[in-house]
Amino acid sequence: MSQIDQAFIQAYAPEAEPAAQPLGAEPIPAPHFQMAAQNTGAYADTATMQRELLSAGSAPAAGSSVRRPLSTFVEPEVAPTTSFQPVFEVDAFRWPTNVSHLLQSHETLFAPVVDQLLAASEEGRSMVGIAGLQSGVGCSTVLMALSRLLAAAGKSVAIVDGNFVSGTLAKSLGLEFETGWEDVLAGRISLAESMVSSLDDHISLLPLSGRVQSPSELLASIQTSVSAGVLRYHYDLVLFDLGTPDRGEQLAAASSLLEHCRIDASILVAELSATNFESDRQIDHLMSLLGSTCLGVIGNEPSIR
Questions:
Q1: Helix (H, G, I), strand (E, B) or coil at 61
Q2: What would the pLDDT profile of 88-138 be if each residue is shown by its tens digit?
Q3: CA-CA distance, 14 to 31, in Å (whole number)?
Q4: pLDDT digits 0-9 by tens, 285-296
Q5: From CA 57, how far away is CA 72, in angstroms rounded?
Q6: Which residues contact 111 (CB under 8 A, 6 or more apart)?
Q7: Which of 39, 164, 173, 188 lies 20 to 30 Å from 78, alpha-carbon distance?
Q8: Taking the domains of the chain in order of start, what are their residue ranges?
Q9: What residues does 70 pair with on adjacent strands?
């Protein structure tokens, strides 16, 4: 079994970008005032009536136009909730064999990466993009391995298939969906209806159901930012599979995800032996795309993709 070269994991310490503020709790409904026709009765004016009723601590008589003191408002019967739960649940994901072998053989080599992601999470940088230098380099494999290690560290984790050209996260985990994140972005279903939670793994998946045409146009929808905001608020870490954003539609999709989802940390996966001029040029290109969010590069061997 080939191994990851720990020396190939390059740590960067860019100045952290301001973390996006999480979505707040749903607002408490505004107080409802029931107004009636003015009837001041024996009082000389409304102001006098207000003063006397308030000083007596009583509510105004029926038919008056005086608002009740705030202290008399009844609490809502159902408190607003901020809970979020995927509609679908499974006992456990069916993890690919290469992911399990990778963790069994080389888990310790991932420790510096996991530590960096945990530190980034504590700083509020919880939206993590993982991109591959080339197709088949093992971007999705690394993402799945990291998600399991982060969940084992006690973090709530969501993984998002952002590979709109050839996303296979759901299939890799033994699942099939007729709908996916693309339907959320188009406004056809809610975010919860498109996600599945693994009870044993403590990881939730936001899948794609197939290849998406013109993904950058779809990602321009306000639903992209809304989805990202909900995920940021309800999960400690959200890992986005950015695929291989070297050209064409996936490059545009990755750029849109970085912008609209406010991805604030990223990792580049490259082949361990990638040291030629062409690979260096590609690394520079993707480093430029990821910018200051990039935490470093993970070298992966073909045999553990």
A1: coil
A2: 999 999 999 999 998 998 888 899 999 999 999 999 999 999 999 888 888
A3: 47
A4: 888 889 889 998
A5: 10
A6: none
A7: 188
A8: 35-78, 89-304
A9: none
Q: Find where tokens 């609490």 sit.
A: 75
Single-letter code of the amino acid located at 210: G
> What is the C-alpha to C-alpha distance for residues 296 and 245, in angstroms, rounded to an integer?
16
| Range list of β-strands (E), the chain | 88-90, 127-132, 157-161, 196-198, 203-206, 237-241, 265-271, 294-300
Number of neighbouring beta carbons within 10 Å of residue 280: 12
Amino acid residing at 19 = A
Q: Phi/psi of residue 119, each to 5°?
A: -65, -40
Strand pairing of 127-132 and 203-206? Answer: unpaired
- Summarize pLDDT for 45-84 with one digit per residue, the tens: 545 545 544 444 444 444 445 554 544 445 555 444 567 8
Which single residue is written with the structure tokens 């408190």? Answer: 79
Which residues have CB under 8 Å from 287's CB, separation 6+?
268, 294
Structural contact between residues 8 and 298, judged by C-beta atoms closer than 8 angstroms: yes
The encoded tokens of residue 192 equal 């919860």
Q: How many CB atoms lie within 10 A of CB 237?
A: 26
Vertex 147: Cα angle to 9 and 136 (nearest 5): 60
Q: Does domain 89-304 have CATH number 3.40.190.10?
A: no
**Whole-prediction pTM:** 0.72
Tokens of 31: 């107080």
SS3 32: coil
User: Could you give the strand order of the β-sheet that contains 203-206, starting from the edge strand earlier in sequence?
Assistant: 88-90, 196-198, 203-206, 157-161, 237-241, 127-132, 265-271, 294-300
